[in-house]
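Appendix B.2, paired examples.
Example (i):
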Amino acid sequence: MVAKLLIVLIFTLSSIILTNVIVVSLFYGINWAVGIVPNNLTGLELMQHSMKLASQAISAAGISLIPLYFGMLKKSVAITIVSSIIMVSFMSPPTDFSVLSVIIIPLVLSVVGFTIGLFCFKNIEKVDLV
């Protein structure tokens, strides 16, 4: 169970960081060659972006554990997948406003996700015996 939780956490964390690094690098490279943005990227801006990226990646890793609760509750992989799709569609609607733009919501959801992961890890012995 620990391996499954770590795979979900590490995959979510690393994919968010890797894709963001690729996008920022491409933007910086294209801007350097073409000069779309008149100002240069400073170290302070890069540090601020890195801190924001780290907090968003950790928050998303915690949120990714929430569908695990529904899957363990119903003992179904399909429920886990459907609940994760519903969560993603709720978090990223096709409008201008996103639930994730309010800073407290991702923080609370990540704490809920990490708590669910801990709860599932502690109760796995009881669930396996039934």
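Example (ii):
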Amino acid sequence: MNQYEAAAQIADEIPEIQKEIVRAPVFGSAYLSVKVLAAYTCNMLQQHQLRQVQRCMLLAEKIYNKGNQLVKTAIENVFIFSFSNMKVSCSRQEWLEIQGKMPAVLFSLYIQQVMKPGV
């Protein structure tokens, strides 16, 4: 899956952000598409919409698993990195619940990122 296919997948599965995803320059950029998805996920978390947060995470995992190296790097550097902001924008209980429902691949990437020296 390339950056255009990833953007189309996001737009198809989350109609609420479709307009943002399909406009230039977002549609041609893996990083900007994933940034829109991450911002939406954070917004849903702030609204305590945990089902929607889980839906976004499942989509991010699907894109990561099917994506080319550019898409994988965008998920790692944008979506996974946004977990730090998500963690501070919710209660400890909510974060534990999210971690418990986090797809295994994303959780593994998150742990790797947190454990990196200098982060």
